[in-house]
Amino acid sequence: MNHRFLTGSAAVALAIGLAFAGPALAQAPAPAADQTPAPPPHPMVGPVMFSGYVDAGTSVNFDSPANNYNFGELFEDRANSFRMNQLVLEAEKDLDPAATGMDWGFKVEGLYGTDARYTHSIGLWSLETHSPYQFDFVEFNAQAHVPVIATGGIDFKAGIYTTPIGYEVVNATGNFFYSHNYITNFAIPIKHTGILSTTHVNDLLDLWLGVDTGINGFLPTHSGDNNSSEAVLAGFGINNPIPNMTILALAHVGAEDPYNKSNSSQYFSGAGKAQDGNRHTRQIFDVTSTYKINDSWSVANETTFDKDDLGVENCANRLTCHSGATAEGTAFYGIYTLNDQWSFGARGEIFRDDQGFYVAGFGSAQDFMRVEQASGAGPNTVYAPGKATYGDLTIGANYKPPLPPLPLNAGLTIRPEFRWDHAWGTPGSNKQFSMNSAGVNTSNDSYLFSVDAIFGF
User: What is residue 441's predicted lDDT score, i.e. its pLDDT?
Assistant: First the structure.
């Protein structure tokens, strides 16, 4: 293990030590309760709130692959090394959920760290550096509430925004686990550039409708999108059909594959001829449900089906490859909250990549965006072992130590987890995990122990 891994691991250990030292430091008695309204959780300048956090951690791969790559992961893809995944600063004015008249808001969120390799909008600082540490605007949007048509009015969002599709999100503070499921990594968008509306028909039903430049697209230009076709996001949300349950069913349909002038790409070209990405669509259908059983227990499920009309099967004989690719998956979550400090969770997932089109690994810092933009091979080291069914079983905990009062209401969350991945391939296909020095994957199983610390302020 290298010096950087040991140094980073020491940093995480220091954070854990601070966490367990916290109770001993927090000796001051709690003040008597009064009727003064609670202060805002973060600093305010007028109606604008400022906040941020740092998320850093490490993943120990018990097989120690020769390429130091955790296949099946994107954001936590480096084995046995320490990474600062996210340094996030936000400025936002939220819409008032109880507004009966016009209201406005905005959100600007900048992210620096290794996660930015996968959050870029196409063409927006996406190939500026070969360093794994990059900068991105995850959110840059304006919002408005208009009290028309429906009982609860309509909320609009325009600009760059993270996708509403799926259970897991970009921000580390919004997820129970450090690692992500296959659906989040490979099947659904990360963010959009466009306009999105949410119509609050009544307390039970919301209708979603938006138009954007596609999955991770930016401006509708050659450099800001990989094709010249828009995409549509539509669906509905059901709030409390039974108490404490929500259901969100969304679809995203549009041309996502770039136009290629040759058939050199296994991802975007048809056998023996160039393909026009504007004439083919990728359809994503996702249903996410959450249910809080009681104050201690909550459960969730996400189920996804994807179809790419231009996707090409990853196979050796290009002339017999299947044109068109599909994938489907489902993930289940259970979370138990013991007290204000400790909670425990489990995630189980099955994800089928029917043609070996969706699941891949990206060895260099620019690989993912080069594939997104079809901007040439460059120094690519893209791993695509072939079609397979993937299983992910993750168990973990969140620990929020009772630290003494800190400036900016700062707090610490530590998230240890153990993850087991298994892949069922087809006869003759390569194995998916643990690449050796010869560049050959040697196992259908992966075992990771990961831990990160989120310091929020």
Answer: 85
